[in-house]
TrEMBL record:
Family annotation (InterPro entries): HNH_nuc
Protein keywords: Endonuclease, Hydrolase, Nuclease
Keyword Nuclease: yes
Natural source organism: Streptomyces hoynatensis
GO molecular function: endonuclease activity
Name of the protein in its database record: HNH endonuclease
Chain residue ranges for the region called Disordered: 52-103
Bias (Basic residues) ranges: 84-96
Keyword match Cytoplasm: no
TM regions (residue ranges): none
Top-level taxon of the source organism: Bacteria
Length: 103
């Protein structure tokens, strides 16, 4: 979901862009904290975003991390897929109707 069509920005606290984001970026050394498959840390230092590790309404430093755009997108897509799998599947077909001659 794009930011332009999301209400997510309204849930961010006052000072998010001016105080919180710069503080988290500095704490993480202005570098993505995602781990690569070989266990090393991602080397991306551009296109960085601050991500909520867990609860999106918890803006505490312990719940925030720096991710590059690629890793943030990957994490968000995985969380979205997990949420979709957790929802009960809707019936994809109409229920079968009894034949009128059998009523």
């Amino acid at each position: 979901m794009a930011w332009s069509s999301s209400g997510r920005r309204a849930q961010l606290p006052k000072g998010w862009s001016s105080r919180i984001v710069p503080r988290i970026l500095a704490r993480d050394g202005h570098r993505c904290v995602a781990r690569l498959t070989d266990g090393t840390r991602c080397t991306e230092t551009e296109r960085l975003e601050v991500d909520h590790i867990g609860d999106p309404l918890n803006h505490g430093d312990a719940n925030l991390q720096t991710l590059c755009r690629r890793h943030h997108k990957r994490k968000t897509q995985a969380e979205s897929a997990q949420a979709r799998r957790a929802r009960p599947k809707e019936r994809r077909r109409r229920p079968a109707e009894r034949h009128p001659g059998l009523l």
